[in-house]
Description:
By secondary structure, the protein is α+β, with helices and mostly antiparallel strands. It is built from 9 helices and 10 strands. It has helices spanning 14-24, 78-81, 84-92, 113-122, 177-183, 216-231, 238-252, 262-275, 280-295, and strands at residues 29-33, 37-38, 95-98, 105-110, 127-130, 135-140, 146-150, 153-156, 162-163, 173-174.
Amino acid sequence: MTQPTDIRRAHLGEHLRTALSLATRGVPPLPLRAGKRPFGNCPECAGSACGDRPHMKAAGPCQCPRPCHAWAAATTDPSVLSSPAWAAAWRQAAAVAYNPGGAGLTVVDLDDADAVAWARRTLPPTRTVRTTRGQHWIYSRTMQSANQVRPGVDIKSRMSYARWLGPGTGTMTELPGAVLALVETEETTPREVVVSSVSTHITVDRTGSTGCRHTEQYVLTGLMRGLEKIRARTTSGAGSQAYGAASFLAAQHADCPGPCGLDALSEHIVAAAVSVGVPEPYAQRAVTRGLSSRTGRAA
């Protein structure tokens, strides 16, 4: 049986050496060209003419030996990584990426300081990798990938790739429900939504908020901002936005001795999400998770 051309490790480029090291740890790598993008498909695979690689949305019979199809080309097979078919890509590579889902991981990509601050307030600590402008928070287990789940935040796991920037620091923890809630599928009702039908004149019973340090006006201002964002999601994303609004309110009251009467506020958040087509059980679940994400309670 013909073996792939043996490329001596001493002569390997830095990126290929990194890729082979990742492969030995069960992390499937792939080369990135300038601009942190995967290499484009070869002519035979352009326009999905080859049927695409298995495990993509349009799974097919592609047997292309080259690193086509972005994340789907990532592999832990050293004979493929160091093969002549991949050699040109490694020579031109500007960086190394990996498929988090293939390694059983989820990367929360925080693109700026505001996103990092949100994660520190909202998510359980885990292994962290510094990026050019922000951080990657890495959790064990996989999930659906999604971009812009909130400002400056992408989720990279299955059917996605993340740039390899080192192993990071800290102890990796299991994927939390707060991250899953950001991209959980919503069954938005396909109907015309009249946003103005939801009353903007809201009153909240504050008799149960005996331990709250904030004025009624402060609380209502934060609530109204959250409701406006939810009502703007008339086609998708309202459930995730409801989670975000509840999480934001919980953060405002994190230092209060409590109780703060957040349950009364949650009714309005759920109602806003339902008004734009989110099923009530899903809305209730998202809001409950959001309220408990920072205070440890929903009261």
